[in-house]
């Protein structure tokens, strides 16, 4: 018998999906039966997509390939598109 030499290394769901946030942990929390678990998942997916799109645009403007925390700061600090109340 082999001692596990040919056994493939476990790959997390986050790595398979190419994401940085913990898919398994979020899935575990969403499995608890609440009335809003579907809405929470949809909202998290929507917000993540929006933030990554804006951060990707910021990194593209700077002609870099990786999104860094600096790009996220640019999204939230410098692009306030909502009108202020007077």
TrEMBL record:
Protein name stated in the entry: Histone H2A
InterPro entries assigned: H2A/H2B/H3, Histone-fold, Histone_H2A, Histone_H2A_CS
Positions of the Core Histone H2A/H2B/H3 domain: 6-74
Keyword field: Acetylation, Chromosome, DNA-binding, Nucleosome core, Nucleus
Subunit: The nucleosome is a histone octamer containing two molecules each of H2A, H2B, H3 and H4 assembled in one H3-H4 heterotetramer and two H2A-H2B heterodimers. The octamer wraps approximately 147 bp of DNA.
Pfam families for this protein: Histone
GO MF term (any one): DNA binding
Phylogenetic lineage: Eukaryota, Metazoa, Chordata, Craniata, Vertebrata
Statement: the UniProt record of this protein carries the keyword Zinc: no
One term under GO cellular component: nucleosome
Entry's localization field: Chromosome; Nucleus
Family, per entry: Belongs to the histone H2A family.
Key word DNA-binding present: yes
């Amino acid at each position: 018998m082999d001692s596990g030499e040919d056994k493939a290394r476990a790959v997390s769901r986050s790595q398979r999906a190419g994401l940085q946030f913990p898919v398994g942990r979020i899935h575990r929390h969403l499995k608890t039966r609440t009335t809003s678990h579907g809405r929470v998942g949809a909202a998290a997916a929507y917000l993540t997509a929006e933030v990554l799109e804006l951060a990707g645009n910021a990194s593209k403007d700077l002609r870099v390939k990786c999104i860094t925390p600096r790009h996220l700061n640019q999204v939230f600090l410098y692009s306030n598109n909502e009108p202020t109340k007077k």
